[in-house]
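@channel sequence for tomorrow's demo:
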Amino acid sequence: QVQLVESGGGLVQPGGSLRLSCTASRSIFSINAMVWYRQAPGKERELVARITSRGTTNYADSVKGRFTISRDNAKNTVYLQMNNLKPEDTAVYYCYNSGNWGQGTQVTVSS
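structure tokens (generated this afternoon):
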């Protein structure tokens, strides 16, 4: 089992940027896809971005061109760079891998 710890959330104005990090408790080099999800109040949890062990990425249509997922296997860490943030990006963001969830980090986009 892998423990996942997210960080980097916070309050940002519309148009601003944040970078989320998800650090795994052990090497993720051989682990398959790492995924970022988010859940806004009253809404279903939705996939935001995914990166495979080979570096192939996928994004939700709502974040394409604004968010970038990347991974640093040497640091056991996956990142989510979020640019041009919008109020509708407000949610708790979760890191996921192979049945393991992080505790989530709150992102609030508001003026």
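heads up for whoever presents: The two ends are 40 Å apart (CA to CA).
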